[in-house]
Design brief:
Layout (H helix, E strand, L loop, with lengths): L1 E4 L11 H16 L3 H25 L7 H5 L11 H17 L8 H20 L1 E4 L10 H4 L5 E3 L6 E3 L7 H12 L5 H13 L4 H23 L3 H6 L8 H4 L11 H17 L10 H11 L17
Parallel strand pairs: 1-2
Antiparallel strand pairs: 3-4
Helix pairs in contact: 1-2, 4-9, 5-7, 5-8, 7-8, 8-9, 8-13
């Protein structure tokens, strides 16, 4: 098995280079009354950023990417739609498995990131025969958070910078794995969702398996609730989740009830359009596409990969 190391040098900067480039002229103008020092910092920062991005791009040329259709029997444009009864059954089974396998184990982000990356790297290498090693650095702030207030995290596709915007509790390992999949070169959201899920659900670590199953439950339940017009709180309470788990799911779609929801709606529309322009199906890839993909994989008669036992609820 060969190894490719993507440097991701920009991720080791104390401040995201893009944030520094944006902020330097503004701060310089406010503190010094002149923007020239800030402009100089901005120019140097952008130069370092560009150098790091080019270096990463060059290394990525040697990466063997997964052919999703061949390996999983489905890809972003070719999936089977999960029947409603199958989705309802999946939700019930996932809730039961989460109740039975509940763990209160949690890791700080700095400890969680290397664990998640290890399993993601292992899973991809098991298919391609190539280890793609990347940075495990994670930020907790980025100006992208202000532009897309609904986002849980973000990955800069040029520098590999990853920021996690909020603690999502039981879902946190999946959010990190999703962004790290982007860092390894899988830019499509559905691809990142699938790789994050499959790597964690096959990890053998209870808290990581729990995160993957929770993400799958949350996404499938969101599809059902949206289709029926049921409120998120009602949908969650109807699952019969144990007392420790139910509060973990309640805040997930809380932004829809906040005063910023109008901004969220506008920016969601912008992001949805951006995804469609890049050959994706829009924001639906996060939930409808993701769950349809897993259903297609687990019921496929052409996939080369075998669905992990922990994730196969349709086998």
């Amino acid at each position: 098995m060969d190894t490719i190391r993507i440097p991701n040098e920009a991720t080791y900067s104390p401040i995201a280079l893009t944030d520094l480039a944006i902020a330097a002229p503004l701060v310089s103008g406010l503190l010094l009354g002149a923007t020239l020092p800030g402009r100089l910092i901005q120019a140097v920062t952008l130069s370092v950023y560009a150098g790091s991005a080019v270096q990463d791009w060059f290394q990525r040329l040697g990466v063997r990417r997964i052919d999703f259709l061949r390996e999983f029997g489905a890809d972003v444009q070719r999936m089977r739609s999960m029947p409603r009864d199958a989705r309802q059954r999946e939700v019930r089974e996932l809730a039961e498995r989460l109740n039975d396998g509940y763990t209160a184990e949690r890791s700080e982000l700095r400890d969680l990131a290397p664990r998640v990356d290890r399993h993601l790297t292992r899973f991809i290498a098991g298919i391609t025969g190539q280890r793609v090693e990347t940075s495990v650095e994670v930020r907790t702030f980025s100006f992208m958070q202000l532009a897309f207030p609904f986002a849980l995290g973000a990955a800069d596709i040029l520098s590999g910078d990853v920021a996690i915007f909020k603690d999502t509790g039981v879902l946190q390992p999946h959010v990190v794995a999703h962004e790290f999949a982007h860092r390894k070169g899988y830019w499509r959201e559905l691809d990142a969702q699938a790789l994050a899920y499959l790597s964690l659900v096959s990890s053998g670590e209870p808290d990581l398996v729990q995160a993957a199953l929770s993400e799958r439950l949350h996404r499938s339940l969101h599809v059902l609730a949206r289709d029926t017009g049921e409120t998120w709180e009602t949908a969650i309470r109807g699952l019969g989740l144990r007392a420790e788990l139910e509060p973990e799911f309640m805040p997930i779609h809380a932004e829809a009830r906040t005063p910023t929801s109008e901004i969220n709606d506008i920016m969601r529309g912008v992001y949805d359009a951006r995804m469609r322009l890049t050959g994706q199906n829009g924001l639906s890839d996060y939930d409808l596409g993701f769950t349809n993909f897993l259903y297609s994989f687990e019921t496929s008669d052409t996939a080369r990969q075998i669905p992990p036992d922990r994730g196969a609820v349709h086998a």
